[in-house]
Design brief:
Elements (H helix, E strand, L loop, with lengths): L3 E7 L6 H11 L4 E6 L6 H11 L5 E5 L6 H14 L4 E5 L10 H7 L5 E5 L6 E3 L3 H18 L11 E4 H6 L12 H11 L4 E5 L1 E3 L10 H17 L7
Helix pairs in contact: 5-8
This protein binds guanosine-5'-triphosphate and magnesium ion.
């Protein structure tokens, strides 16, 4: 039987995490979830510890790290955790309901015949709800810019609702990624593409967070634009494959 893992990274998500886990296990009851919490000041991890003990025994796992180390490194830690335990399919999503759990079965269906499935806001049927003009422009512009520079066909390169076959993560050498910030998503998809894996986008409607603080800033965005050029110059296509 195919073993599925969903990684959810949290930092101050106490208002979202219990409901999110409830919705995930309601749509896909037979999977495992790993929550990676960076010692959230709001103690999100306490809620997860309790649920893992009382309600989702053997299905929910918590990795608690010492402090805020960033989303990219959280996913790398989660990928390694999933690879070690031989999950066949490993996906990640945000905890703030921007990524609606109702789409998860579609990811699991599509991953049967693909190597990476991406939730896409910028293909037919996809979209964004609750974003202002500036945020939309940054996200769409960032994807278009990355697509042109890197020569990818993928429309949504910055989204974090993604599902990998384990062999992709084993191949792209997740411990040696160059980006940790906003361009992390661009890099994992780019390396997947360079290794000749099959990528599929499925439409999602992305909803902006309602509970909790937004962390996006122009500084993060500019750093990401520069990083895409670095990726183009430094990440090389493997010779074999
Ligand atoms: N473990 C961990 N999780 C993080 C960290 N930063 C963000 N997250 C989580 O990563 C997911 C995405 O972060 P968000 O803050 O929603 O980022 P965003 O969607 O770009 O921005 P907003 O929703 O506008 O705040 C959420 O589940 C966060 O709780 C971090 O440093 N460590
Ligand atoms: Mg968010």
């Amino acid at each position: 039987m195919t073993k599925h893992l969903i990684i959810v990274a949290t930092y101050n998500e106490k208002g979202n995490i219990e409901k999110l886990l409830g919705e995930i296990f309601a749509v896909v009851p037979d999977i495992n979830v790993l929550v990676i919490d960076d010692n959230s000041p709001d103690k999100t991890y306490e809620i997860v510890e309790e649920l893992a003990h009382d309600k989702y025994n053997d299905k929910l796992f918590l990795m608690k790290r010492a402090g805020k180390l960033g989303l990219g490194t959280a996913y790398i830690a989660g990928f390694n955790w999933g690879i070690e335990r031989q999950y066949d399919v490993i996906m990640h999503m945000d905890a703030d309901f921007s990524h609606n759990p109702r789409y998860i079965p579609e990811f699991f269906e599509a991953i049967k015949t693909n190597d990476l499935v991406l939730g896409s806001r910028y293909i037919k049927g996809g979209g964004v709800v609750n974003w202002g003009f500036k945020r939309k422009l940054m996200s769409m512009g960032g994807s278009l810019y990355s697509r042109i520079i890197l020569g990818l066909k993928t429309r949504d390169l910055t989204g974090g609702f993604k599902c990998f076959r384990r062999k992709v993560l084993e191949t792209i050498d997740v411990n040696n990624l160059k980006s940790t910030g906003y361009s992390f998503q661009v890099e994992t998809t780019y390396k997947t593409f360079l290794n000749g894996f099959k990528i599929k986008e499925i439409p999602i409607i992305f909803e902006d967070r309602i509970i909790g603080q937004s962390k996006m800033s122009s500084g993060i965005f500019v750093e990401a634009l520069l990083m895409v050029i670095k990726l183009k110059l430094s990440v090389k296509k493997p010779k074999l494959r």
